């Protein structure tokens, strides 16, 4: 979606003559061109899936009533997850709000703020969201600065939407200082809104989790954990609590505290088992637990890591298609844990089975296939199978040379391993024998092949052989 769609540039190519008494703000447009509302009616804007072909009577509906219809339509499209149609419908709302209320009105600011929300939450486009949020922010100060009561609450609500959208967009773009300023403003405005409108737990929960992620990216784990604790007091369901516990585990893990991370993940694990056992959410938490246990310095935790890896793989294999990239990635980590715990045969079986799946998923010449070959070759080396290791590592070298080139550091490491393996007695002896076979004298083609073993040559055959020698 173009960032200019829904902005004031929406009318650059559309001009007409009309005045709108209801807004108290007449707008002049060039004669001979069509109304933006009619421009949208002719198919240039979003088409409601529930409307079909619009009648002439529907076209004659005033822009204010039309705006109300499309605002309702936006919510219906969002509820039905029709993302593109929802964004296009909100673009129409921006155009109609400007047509009805003029360039400087709270309704236009609200339309821009809502469009910014759509771009961020539905489309994941932070740049477009920031542009429309900035337009809304520029309009709000001119909208009844001394408003009171319900109108003041609407102004505050619009400010909150603008600050919160700008903060989340800046966080996605890596602009941490800008994100902090806007999110803290949003939190402050939200506190004022609560005094007017009462308790709004879900919105405050969203603010707390977003601030937690911001402080985590800023390297402030203490502040991040405080926001997580705040979010835990506001959550309205076990799924939200699981998400918070996972965030807290991530913060602890980044601080080099795997044991603390495990405790938070175990809380999430107990919650998800009560609500949706055997689902993908449980598989994700089991995988996180397995990774956390594998990072612990205590060797006894390796068995627990292997158990959680196995549990997550069981769910992924059942819920996802064969050869899914996530399943294959978890398998690789599981095999490394098995190798650390001395279960080489089991690890080798899984690794060899995964090679064919990786080839069908990623292609023969892929980094994933090269990684598996390197791991298999390393296991074969530890088992003393030098010839098999040499062959496996040579295949790995061939793939990495084509992927990265001969001078890449990964390729050079494998090349050194292959050179080292080539000096092993088993491999060197096989190569020496092969070289002797290459340089041996050719067999004489003039010896009759029909003679039985041990039979003497006839005088004529002997004479013929002497002439050819």
Which descriptors would you attach to this protein?
single chain; 469 residues; mainly alpha; Serine Threonine Protein Phosphatase 5, Tetratricopeptide repeat; 21 helices; 71% helix; disordered N terminus
Structural features, described:
- This is Tetratricopeptide repeat domain 23.
- It comes from Paramormyrops kingsleyae.
- The chain is mostly helical and 469 residues long.
- It has a domain at 1-143: Alpha Horseshoe (Serine Threonine Protein Phosphatase 5, Tetratricopeptide repeat), CATH 1.25.40.
- The protein is 71% helix and 0% strand.
- It contains 21 helices and no strands.
- It has helices at 36-44, 56-59, 63-79, 83-101, 106-122, 126-139, 150-172, 176-197, 201-217, 221-232, 238-254, 258-275, 280-295, 301-319, 325-340, 344-362, 367-382, 386-404, 409-422, 425-439, 459-468.
- Helix 5 runs parallel beside helix 7 and helix 8 runs antiparallel to helix 9.
- The longest helix is centred in the middle third of the chain and has 23 residues, at 150-172.
- The model is unreliable at 1-54 and 464-469 (pLDDT under 50).
Tell me the series of helices and strands, N- to C-terminal. Answer: HHHHHHHHHHHHHHHHHHHHH
Low-confidence stretches: 1-54, 464-469
Label the overall shape.
elongated
Largest sheet, described in full? none
Distance between the termini: 84 Å
**Radius of gyration, taken over Cα atoms and rounded to an integer in Å:** 35 Å
Protein name: Tetratricopeptide repeat domain 23
InterPro entries: TPR-like_helical_dom_sf, TPR_rpt, TTC23/TTC23L
């Amino acid at each position: 979606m173009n960032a200019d769609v829904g902005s004031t540039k929406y009318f650059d190519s559309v001009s007409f003559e009309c005045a709108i008494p209801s807004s108290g703000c007449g707008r002049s447009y060039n004669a001979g061109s069509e109304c933006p509302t009619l421009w949208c009616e002719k198919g240039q804007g979003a088409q409601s899936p529930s409307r079909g072909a619009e009648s002439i009577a529907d076209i004659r509906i005033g822009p204010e009533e039309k705006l109300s219809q499309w605002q309702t339509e936006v919510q219906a499209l969002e509820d039905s997850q029709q993302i593109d149609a929802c964004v296009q419908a909100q673009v129409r709302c921006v155009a109609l709000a400007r047509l009805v209320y003029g360039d400087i009105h709270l309704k236009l600011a609200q339309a821009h703020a809502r469009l910014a929300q759509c771009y961020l939450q539905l489309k994941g486009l932070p740049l477009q969201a920031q542009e429309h949020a900035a337009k809304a922010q520029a309009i709000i100060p001119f909208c009844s600065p001394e408003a009171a009561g319900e109108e003041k609450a609407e102004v505050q609500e619009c400010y909150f939407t603008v600050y919160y959208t700008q903060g989340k967009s800046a966080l996605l773009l890596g602009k941490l200082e800008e994100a902090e300023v806007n999110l803290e403003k949003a939190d402050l405005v939200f506190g004022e809104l609560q005094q007017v409108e009462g308790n709004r737990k879900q919105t405050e929960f969203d603010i707390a989790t977003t601030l937690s992620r911001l402080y985590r990216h800023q390297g402030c784990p203490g502040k991040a954990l405080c926001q997580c604790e705040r979010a835990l007091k506001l959550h309205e369901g076990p799924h939200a609590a699981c998400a918070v516990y996972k965030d807290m585990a991530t913060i602890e893990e980044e601080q080099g505290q795997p044991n603390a991370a495990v405790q938070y993940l175990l809380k999430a694990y107990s919650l998800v088992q009560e609500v949706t056992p055997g689902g993908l959410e449980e598989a994700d938490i089991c995988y996180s637990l397995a990774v956390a246990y594998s990072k612990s310095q205590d060797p006894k935790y390796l068995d627990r890591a292997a158990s959680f890896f196995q549990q997550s793989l069981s769910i992924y294999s059942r819920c996802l298609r064969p050869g899914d990239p996530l399943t294959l990635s978890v398998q690789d980590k599981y095999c490394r844990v098995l190798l650390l715990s001395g279960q080489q045969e089991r690890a080798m079986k899984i690794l060899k089975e995964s090679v064919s799946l990786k080839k069908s998923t990623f292609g023969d010449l892929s980094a994933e296939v090269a990684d598996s070959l390197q791991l298999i070759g390393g296991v074969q080396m530890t088992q003393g199978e030098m010839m098999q290791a040499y062959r496996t590592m040579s295949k790995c070298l061939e793939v990495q040379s084509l992927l990265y080139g001969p001078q890449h550091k990964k390729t050079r490491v494998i090349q050194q391993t292959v050179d080292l393996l080539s000096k092993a007695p088993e491999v060197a002896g096989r190569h020496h024998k092969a070289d002797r076979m290459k340089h041996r004298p050719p067999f004489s083609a003039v010896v009759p092949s029909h003679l039985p073993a041990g039979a003497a040559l006839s005088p004529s055959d002997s004479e013929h052989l002497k002439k050819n020698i």
